[in-house]
Amino acid sequence: MTVHTRPHPNPPLAKRLFAAGGPGLREHHARFGQAPEPTAEALIAALDAAGLTGRGGAGFPTARKIASITRPNPVVVGNAAEGEPLSDKDATLLARSPHLVLDGLQIAAHALAADKVYLYLPNRMAAAAKRALMERADAGLDPRRVTIVEAPDTFVAGEESAVLRRIEGGPPLPRDRRVPTSASGFRGRPTLVSNVETLAHVALIARYGHRWFRSVGDVAEPGTMLISVSGAVARRCVLDLPTGTSLIQVLAHGGVHDLRSVRAVLIGGYHGGWIPTTALAGARLSRSGLADFGASPGAGIVHALSIHECGLARTADILAYLAEQGAGQCGPCRHGLPRLARQFDHLAYGRVTDGLLDELHRTLGLVENRGACRHPDGAVRLARSALKAFAGNP
To answer: Cβ contacts of residue 24 below 8 Å, gap of 6+?
Structure first.
């Protein structure tokens, strides 16, 4: 039986995605009420006015992504393949607010008249998702059946084309795409692939409108975003914070009150960039607030490096992991990333020479912009930021 309750008119601004206070459908409806069913035109207009950008890492405008689905018979996919080792946000969201994600998935599917809806997630998240789907089925919700597909715990499994290959029954490896997914995705059908956090924001904007969404956060990239805080902090945690929050404040939420204990901060995860602690004063959690540092929030990762750790050694370890996690389908993954990892290992643990640095920069140039997917470029971005951040103070 459907639960009919009066929704709270204005969820707390600093706790939007976790405002229900529990994962159950009853708590969800008590806080948010029933999900609306806007038309495609109304939904796109609301998302455009809200300025919502994707929370999976790329930051593409959500309204444009949905509007690009123009052919009939589309497919909608919620992507929770959290292969990034430093990210906990999608798992936390599905554990604490699964119904916001499922609302967003159904709102998008209804607006696009999609007959196939998938939720792609690792096995560790499946129990929470299945429990929420059963609650909704018992309440007579979700006329479009959601099919759960397991995502392997590998770094590249969440890349958009890898998601579609896996759902189609193939290996979870990126494709060398020539046609946008919105035109030809799942089995040649137009497909919307959206990160689950983005879908949760869609569910809120459809309820409360663009002005409410824009009432907090950075002017150019409004709203809140989930941040995974880890490393040399008092507690590893996931926070729902307004975009534009200073990185010093983010670290304080993680229990870091003395920056002298931190050498640098990695922003955006293993495809992100290092910012030395001495430069954190002007860094804020938005693209514009991180542009001067050559970084971006990515999938919302803030990782603190202890003052007792070597930045070059930590980067060498990450690059070795990224080399192992490559798809192995093109030269940069098969040869470039292993070479880059070896060179960084020599840089961190061996004797630094001009010849080694020259070879390292040459490898970076050979790998960049030549991969079949963005994985090699992400590794290059990390390596270059480490060379800049730790050049004089590794």
So the answer is: 135
